[in-house]
């Protein structure tokens, strides 16, 4: 018995058959692989930090960059927010919703598959919060 009677499957493009991609270069691998959880908008203003950018829901096109954010000196349940472009500081309740625009954070990530570690700067708005990370060697 020989398989000689079987005609070659020349009606299939080679790349569709498994095991024939040995010559195709693997796509450029980014430095590892991050699973992220996107931030939900609007977010409470208490999540913002200095240098974050946000907008108030009533003025979504007016982007504000935080110069400083601090607890109100007499009312501990309020925050005082100094923003570039705003003459007077904003006084807001920590749970008041804002539209986050840019929230850069540095994360210490540990590979889910090996002890590898890395430090990454991610934008919570653009990238989301890292949930799991797999390093370049493991991905
Ligand atoms: Zn790893």
Using the alpha-carbon principal axes, give the shape.
elongated
The averaged pLDDT comes out at 82
CATH class value of the domain at 43-101: Mainly Beta
- Give me the CATH architecture of the domain at 43-101, please: Roll
Percent range for helical residues? under 10%
Distance between the termini: 43 Å
What share of residues are in beta strands?
35-45%
Looking at CATH, which topology of the domain at 43-101 would you report?
SH3 type barrels
Verbal overview:
This protein has 139 residues and is mostly beta strands. The chain has a domain at 43-101: SH3 type barrels. It is built from no helices and ten strands. It has strands at residues 33-37, 43-44, 53-56, 59-71, 79-84, 90-92, 97-102, 104-110, 117-123, 129-134. The strands form three sheets. A six-stranded antiparallel beta sheet has the order 2-7-3-4-5-6, with no helix packed on it. Strands 1-10 form a two-stranded antiparallel sheet. Residues 6-30 have low confidence and may be disordered. It binds zinc ion (ZN). The site of zinc ion (ZN) has 8 residues, from loops.
């Amino acid at each position: 018995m020989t398989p000689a009677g079987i005609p070659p499957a020349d009606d299939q493009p080679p790349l569709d058959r498994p095991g024939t991609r040995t010559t195709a270069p693997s796509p450029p691998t980014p430095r590892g692989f991050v699973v992220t959880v996107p931030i939900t908008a609007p977010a409470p203003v208490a999540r913002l930090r200095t240098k974050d950018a946000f907008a108030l829901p009533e003025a979504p096109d007016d982007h504000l960059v935080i110069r400083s954010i601090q607890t109100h000196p007499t009312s501990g349940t309020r925050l005082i927010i100094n923003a570039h472009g705003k003459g007077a500081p904003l006084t807001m309740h920590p749970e008041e919703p804002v539209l986050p625009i840019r929230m850069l954070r540095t994360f210490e990530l540990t590979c889910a598959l090996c002890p590898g570690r890395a430090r990454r700067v991610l934008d919570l708005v653009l990238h989301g919060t890292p949930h799991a990370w797999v390093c370049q060697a493991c991905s």
